[in-house]
TrEMBL record:
<dbReference type="InterPro" id="IPR003439">
    <property type="entry name" value="ABC_transporter-like_ATP-bd"/>
</dbReference>
<dbReference type="GO" id="GO:0005524">
    <property type="term" value="F:ATP binding"/>
</dbReference>
<protein>
    <submittedName>
        <fullName>Sulfonate transport system ATP-binding protein</fullName>
    </submittedName>
</protein>
<dbReference type="InterPro" id="IPR003593">
    <property type="entry name" value="AAA+_ATPase"/>
</dbReference>
<feature type="domain" description="ABC transporter">
    <location>
        <begin position="4"/>
        <end position="236"/>
    </location>
</feature>
<keyword id="KW-0813">Transport</keyword>
<dbReference type="Pfam" id="PF00005">
    <property type="entry name" value="ABC_tran"/>
</dbReference>
<keyword id="KW-0067">ATP-binding</keyword>
<keyword id="KW-0547">Nucleotide-binding</keyword>
<dbReference type="GO" id="GO:0016887">
    <property type="term" value="F:ATP hydrolysis activity"/>
</dbReference>
<dbReference type="InterPro" id="IPR027417">
    <property type="entry name" value="P-loop_NTPase"/>
</dbReference>
<dbReference type="InterPro" id="IPR050093">
    <property type="entry name" value="ABC_SmlMolc_Importer"/>
</dbReference>
């Protein structure tokens, strides 16, 4: 298990003579075993943050600290696993082989088989375990990608708009599955989305970014599984206002 502490984190990019301040002095504490969603307009720095957390990109300034809990006695630390918007499966491997891929270092074939079997079952993919990525739907491919990350068993799961390209029903279904996985395993999840409803449905805390800065940290004190009721809609509106910078009178007040 692990949490994340960000102190004064900044990232700049240069495009010609222009300097883009993608992230500006971010201070955040993502708690061990928490589900955090990050929302904001296009270009506000969400993906950049995940790329820094996953080590794909180096920060310009500031610190990223992974805080491992004391009772974590795993010999090998696996801080981060990431799921992207596209599934990024290997086309020459089957669903089952794609999911087993992160376990290639393990010697114990039975252990690999057991782990993959468990997540094939959880992700509803048993029937398609021998299919190749070209033979399955976008939703199934994304399930495989989530299953592959879970097989890897990282302390922290980063998800970059993983369901954005899926149809409404498949997205709803996978959102429910993420909640079930979170409730069963209590891994630290950081989930980036454009969709405010998705952010409120999933997150224990919603963090709103605007132009590279954190403009709101909103706890969602609703139990899972969440229904769209008055409080849900009020929180959604509050977040929408923080994103747009507008102050509108809520249609639904408690
Ligand atoms: N490799 C790069 N080189 C130059 N600029 C970059 C690079 N990556 C990101 N940026 C810039 O940093 C800013 C933040 O980009 P980022 O992709 O993090 O935004 P985002 O919130 O994830 O957007 P979206 O929701 O559209 O994916 C943008 O202005 C973008 O143009």
């Amino acid at each position: 298990m692990a949490g994340i502490k960000l102190s004064n984190l900044s990232k700049q990019f240069s495009i010609g003579a222009e300097t883009i301040h993608a992230l500006k002095n971010i201070d955040l504490h993502i708690l061990d075993g928490s589900f955090t969603t990050i929302v904001g307009k296009s270009g506000c720095g969400k993906t950049t943050l995940l790329r820094l957390l996953s080590g794909l990109e180096k920060q310009s300034a500031g610190e990223i600290e992974f805080t491992f809990t004391n009772n974590d006695n795993r010999a090998e630390k696996r801080p981060v696993g990431i799921v992207f918007q596209e599934s990024r499966l290997f086309p020459w491997l089957t669903v089952k082989e794609n999911m087993a891929f992160p376990l290639f270092k393990l010697k114990n074939k039975l252990e690999i088989e057991k782990t993959v079997d468990k997540y094939l079952h959880i992700m509803g993919l048993k029937k398609f375990k021998d299919a190749y990525p070209s033979q399955i739907s976008g939703g199934m491919a994304q399930r495989t990608a989530v299953g592959r990350t879970l097989c890897y068993n990282p302390d922290i799961i980063l998800m970059d708009e993983p369901f954005a390209a899926l149809d409404y029903f498949t997205r709803k279904n996978l959102q429910e599955e993420m909640v079930n996985i979170f409730l069963a395993q209590h891994k630290t999840i950081v989930f980036v989305t454009h969709n405010v409803e998705e952010a409120v449905y999933l997150g224990e805390k919603v963090i709103v970014f605007n132009e590279g800065e954190v403009v709101m940290e909103r706890s969602v004190p609703l139990s899972y599984p969440r229904q769209s009721g008055v409080e849900f809609i009020n929180i959604q509106e509050e977040i929408l206002n923080a994103i747009t910078g507008k102050q509108t009178q809520s249609l639904y007040t408690l």
